[in-house]
Amino acid sequence: xxxxxxxxxxxxxxxxxxxxxxxxxxxxxxxxxxxxxxxxxxxxxxxxxxxxxxxxxxxxxxxxxxxxxxxxxxxxxxxxxxxxxxxxxxxxxxxxxxxxxxxxxxxxxxxxxxxxxxxxxxxxxxxxxxxxxxxxxxxxxxxxxxxxxxxxxxxxxxxxxxxxxxxxxxxxxxxxxxxxxxxxxxxxxxxxxxxxxxxxxxxxxxxxxxxxxxxxxxxxxxxxxxxxxxxxxxxxxxxxxxxxxxxxxxxxxxxxxxxxxxxxxxxxxxxxxxxxxxxxxxxxxxxxxxxxxxxxxxxxxxxxxxxxxxxxxxxxxxxxxxxxxxxxxxxxxxxxxxxxxxxxxxxxxxxxxxxxxxxxxxxxxxxxxxxxxxxxxxxxxxxxxxxxxxxxxxxxxxxxxxxxxxxxxxxxxxxxxxxxxxxxxxxxxxxxxxxxxxxxxxxxxxxxxxxxxxxxxxxxxxxxxxxxxxxxxxxxxxxxxxxxxxxxxxxxxxxxxxxxxxxxxxxxxxxxxxxxxxxxxxxxxxxxxxxxxxxxxxxxxxxxxxxxxxxxxxxxxxxxxxxxxxxxxxxxxxxxxxxxxxxxxxxxxxxxxxxxxxxxxxxxxxxxxxxxxxx
Length: 615
Description:
Blueprint: H1 32-60, H2 70-79, E1 85-86, E2 105-108, E3 114-119, H3 125-137, H4 143-162, H5 169-181, H6 185-191, H7 194-216, E4 224-225, H8 226-234, H9 241-263, H10 268-290, H11 295-317, H12 319-342, H13 344-359, H14 361-376, H15 387-391, H16 398-424, H17 431-439, H18 459-468, E5 472-473, E6 502-503, H19 511-514, E7 532-533, H20 535-553, H21 571-583, H22 592-612
Antiparallel strand pairs: 1-3, 2-3, 4-7, 5-6
Helix pairs in contact: 1-4, 1-5, 1-6, 2-3, 3-11, 4-5, 4-6, 4-7, 5-21, 5-22, 6-7, 6-22, 7-14, 9-10, 10-16, 11-12, 11-14, 12-13, 14-16, 20-21
């Protein structure tokens, strides 16, 4: 079997040799020039896949006039010193106006009058990513164009991530192409409106989290005897001894305090203070479990994710604050340049120490947790994929991996709770319930007023959408807009809007029909025939099922769409299974080719129709 990474020393997630560039053939030996070509090949392929997908994404929908850009308005609200967005805004020289009409809760004054402001139900990371662009272009920021760019970057991250699996380079490339053009990520990139932008941001963060976990655990994809894995799980001792145990107890107490304070309607500043202490406690937990080196990724990510938006918002409110931040950055750059000239050896040692720290499996597991937590602040249901990080990553056993990843994930998740409380007065966003009541009027979607917003009774009907919903074949009328078709006996065409052969079902289409390459995912379990299994396969399968099941409980399945957009939430885990499944066919790996080709053709058809219908 071809490996795309250098093997680790024996042991689960322990110290490993540095990752080599994935080989591009089975026999990479030869001259230095040939070795250089082999090392360069994966980089070239990665860039080529990014460029290809970017071109396809951009030209599939060259108009990009979708009015749903809630996150642009949210970012602008932050720059204006508000958490709520402006509503009922007329077009002007400084604003395109808000032509959207849904998915926000109006804020009323004491007399019940509309204040022309509203709260959004969505987690904030997608707006946070837009903040630098909105700071420059304000409400005229082209979220749809940015969606095409960021989705193409997601494809590149996927190619990098798959390089840590022991798979053929052909399978790596085809699986990456499948994610970019054979799944509904293509449709999300082409449309780029509010809901799809959130998926694109979440997919990128989740792919990066998986890559860090895989890079810290080189043996995770190697099938092992089931008995050995079970025995290793039973032998897992509590890591960090009493220090980490006490820290976990303190974090639990602080978490309970956070919920009690929020339930009592405590001032947002007090709740935020408890949240900061919780985040510090998470860092202490990582230290207690693994050592001080893990603070580097923690501090670096928090500084970037928190510092840059804070500087932009403060700068919008007070130009003096932005000037001060610019001056501080300039001074830091000057100091680094001077030190590099005066004391180059010190700089070299500092860079080497940073590199060594990031090479530690434990540091990468904390970084994986941080990125996973960030993905959850774009799409909440991703949190149910956390079992993957219990099974895969640095740490040596499932308990240590979980504590390290959990410490990293706690920082953005606690920040999400605190932000939601500051915005709405609740730890969990109440706007979802408000919208549920508004959408109960859509009786054709089979919503039930006596069921909750997340209800097990929704699973059967939503499972039919996810797995079995077909396009509308030989339709005589669109469901929306309700136009009559094929007037006067016109002949039907594949892309004839007035008389189509078939159109996507706007409620959703089967994920199997739209992306048939997913059918290869179960082949990842082939080693189970010999009572052997790997942790990547098990962890990815658990994550896919858990995320999908929670999404199926939701009353809405993302209607007015091609395909099944909620599948983006588990796609990063699912493509792991597709890649491993195809590779485990051995010399028959090429079976992946027709499945990917069919997936691309179907998504081309569906995306073109979605754009034509103005979805």
